[in-house]
Structure formats: structure tokens, C-alpha cells
Amino acid sequence: MSDSLTRASGIVFDLDGTLVDSTYVHTLCWWEALQQFGHARPMAAVHHTVGMGADHLLHHLLGDGRDRSQDGAITSAHDTLFGTWHERLHPLPAARALLNWCRDAGLTVGLASSGGGRDLWAMLEVLDHPDFDVVVTADDVDPARPDPDVLGTVLLRAGLDAEDVMVVGDSVWDMVAATRVGAVAIGVATGGTSAPELEHAGAELTFQDLAALLDALQDARPAPVPGIWEPHP
Hints:
By secondary structure, the protein is of the alpha/beta class. It has eleven helices and six strands. Helix 9 links the parallel strand 4 and strand 5. Helix 2 (23-36) crosses helix 5 (71-83) and helix 6 runs parallel beside helix 11 (210-220). It is globular, with a radius of gyration of 17 Å. The N and C termini lie far apart (38 Å).
């Protein structure tokens, strides 16, 4: 086991597909939004782009020759469709326990999302409003992942050095962004991307789910003092 789990002073989580079970909802909403504007793409292809910022996702799926004037409308269609799912989203198993443990262990805990602030409140409500030290979404930077600006902004605001931070994500794009800033990339296979794919993209460690990551952290670090991080009422 890497000593990264032991020596890190901070941990930064992706949101969609990592803490909240929303990757396939995003896949469906992007697929439908593209259909509305005459762009038929296989769902498998759409799934592999989830985790990118909207600009990169559309470029990846539609290419340079697309009518860029549609980009904003397609993104808005996705956002509207995704909004209809807010009340049906659920946290991934062990997400709340992992966040609480990291806080109680004294780690600086950040959230980095390639999604926008529009969905942030609903997603945090799913997690019982954990009190992250730093939260950065795509609305805070330009462009979003796989460029590292989202993570870079988290590190800057938290006052953390990249080499002392674990970045936990479920997509290839999370791993690419983490390695670009020099952080420790930790992959979780909770969003439909396999461990080998995550490792190929730069993951130093991979785990099947959040419970396995929590077990590894508990084995690697001293037992924390519980009760530091309580959800907001």
C-alpha cells in the first residue's frame, strides 16, 4: 500500500459518481439533450465523457466541426433534465461515513466538481450538507476539467501543496486532472469506470468502492477523535 494514505494532509473529492450516485443520470441527461438538437450518440460514448466540463464534453462528442452556437442550449437542456432528478439522487454507500472520518482525522477536506453551482445545493443535501473546507465548481473557474483549474483553485484556497493531497474520483478525467497538478490520484470504481482504466489514466491507488477506501485509510492512519464534523441542521 502506498504511503500516500498515511502522509497526506488533505483530501479532495469529486462529487458526481464519487460521492453521489449520479453518473448514469448525467449520461442519460446528456444523451437526451444531444438528441434534442439532432445529435445521436451512443450512451456508452456519452458515459465516457461524464466527468469533463461541459465544453470539453461537447468537443469530445461532437468535434471541432460542430455548430458551437448550440453549445449553451445543449448544456442548458442537460441542466434542466438533470434538475428533474434532484430529489431522486442518493449518496453512494459509505460516502457520509468517509467524509465524517476524514474530517475527524484532521484532514483538510475539499470538494472539486466539474459541474456547476446550479446543482450543488441539491447534491450537498443528498450528503446531509457536509461542511467542506473548500468547495470549487466549474462556475468558479474557466475552463473546467480535464484542465486542472478546478483542482488548482481548491489547492490555492485551502493552502495545500499538491504532493500532500489525495484526489478521489471515479472518472478518467479526475485522474488526469489530479496527475496534472501533481496530486495523488485515487480512483474509485463507483461511476462505471474500471480500475484498469483509472490506473491507465494515472491513479496511484484504486478501490472498488468508498467503503474499501475508508478501510484502507483506517488501516493507514491513527484512529481519529469522532464528532468534529456534524452535518448542518
